[in-house]
Amino acid sequence: MLTLKVDCSPSRVNIGGSAVAHLIPAVSYRRFHISERANSAILNLAKPQSHEKVVPDMSEPAKSSYHHGDLRATLISIAMEMLERGETFSIRAVAREAGVSATAPYRHFSGREALESALAAEGLRNLKADLTRDRPQPSSLEELADFGVAYVEFALRRPALFRLMFGNECNIHDEERVRAAAEVHELLATAIAGVFPGSDPLNLALGGWGLVHGLAFLYLDRKLTAPSIEKVAAQVRASLLAVFSTGSQH
């Protein structure tokens, strides 16, 4: 039985009756164009942000700008928009944008860290949805390489969210985030096991994730550059094929 603790996922996932460690995956390929806003965001992502702590007055009624069917979802959506616009957001700022009292968000989030954890969980779900849309599990090395391309493209298209997803320590008590991470981890391990059925999926998945995750941050941090997203995709695909092809010959 293979075990490994990565991020905030449970330590094992069953694949074909065998327990395999959870790992963050890189999955299916979808073309897109980086907008000017997203491209500029790659250059300026790590703005210092204050972690305000307000003691909530739960008796204070929310402002009646409009009624929310699901205030928690509204707050997450607004915070996500602010994050990806490159704005410094806070519980107070998100509440103001939502048109509710400054203490209303504390009915759903204990503080900024809890809101950020919810954003990370949403990001993991978005990643899984992007990577699996219109794409079956890979059955060849080329399709597996496309997974890696998609992972890097997601990072470049949504850089602020990607940094938040992996830049903050995971709250293991946040069941929503743990579950979202586990689903993505299982996706990679299953993909690796499908393409290399007789291999050690744990070590291959760990190595594959390390490669694509490292490439994603090398491009985000401008240590690697390319004139177009097509060139980025070509380089990532070539790197993955070179590594996995060499490994499969031994």
Strands, helices and their partners?
Blueprint: E1 13-15, E2 18-20, H1 36-43, H2 71-84, H3 91-98, H4 112-132, H5 141-157, H6 159-167, H7 175-195, H8 201-220, H9 229-248
Antiparallel strand pairs: 1-2
Helix pairs in contact: 2-3, 4-6, 4-7, 5-6, 5-8, 5-9, 7-8, 8-9
Describe this structure in words.
The protein has a domain at about 15-45 and about 115-250: Tetracycline Repressor, domain 2, CATH 1.10.357.10. Helix 5 packs antiparallel against helix 9 (about 230-250) and helix 7 (about 175-195) packs across helix 8 (about 200-220). Strand 1 and strand 2 (about 20) form a beta hairpin. By secondary structure, the chain is mostly helical. It has a two-stranded antiparallel ribbon. The protein has helices at about 35-45, 70-85, 90-100, 110-130, 140-155, 160-165, 175-195, 200-220, 230-250, and strands at about 15, 20. It is built from 9 helices and 2 strands; from the N terminus they run E-E-H-H-H-H-H-H-H-H-H. The radius of gyration is 20 Å and the shape is elongated.
